[in-house]
Structure prediction request, 209 residues.
Amino acid sequence: MSPVAPTTARFISFEGIDGAGKSTHIEALGERLRQRGADVVHTREPGGTELAESLRELILHRSMDSLTEALLVFAGRRDHLQRVIEPALATGKTVLCDRFTDASFAYQGGGRGMDLAVLGTLEHWVQGTRQPDLTLWFDLDPAIAAQRRAAAREADRFEQQDLEFFTRVRAGYAARAASAPQRFARIDAGLSVPEVAAQIHELLEARGW
Prediction:
């Protein structure tokens, strides 16, 4: 395959419940795209800027209601878009983002049970029509994800939620994927790391990326 032109801007988000393993594959994908000539920016949500990272600490570790949580997430997202994502795309860079707005619909909408219309209004206010060019959804049985999380790290406020919460989050992701099938690509995250990597490789090869 011929290299990607350095001016080809792409926005790729990585989504999935905690423990699905998406973060493992971000760096590998970044290296793959660099080898094809892309200038790659790695970032995450909540976070990505000094302000958004400070909000991340509150979101992950302080008790709050679902609306407050959503407002903080979208406030961080606005700053992230203005300071990192939009400037990078405007200069032809490829942005790899560990979570974006789909996570709000899955976690605050599916998990917390927030009104999706409220989230849709916030989405419109904060980002207009901006969406990722591709969303890799790392889909995994919540019970398996829970086992992985328990073996990997100390749980934050989200990771402490019960299995039913993550079942709702997974359903939230499925609904979001169904609403945007041209953007979403489901990755079977229950497979081994090499097998998951192979799925991503085949997907991008098919797109000529």
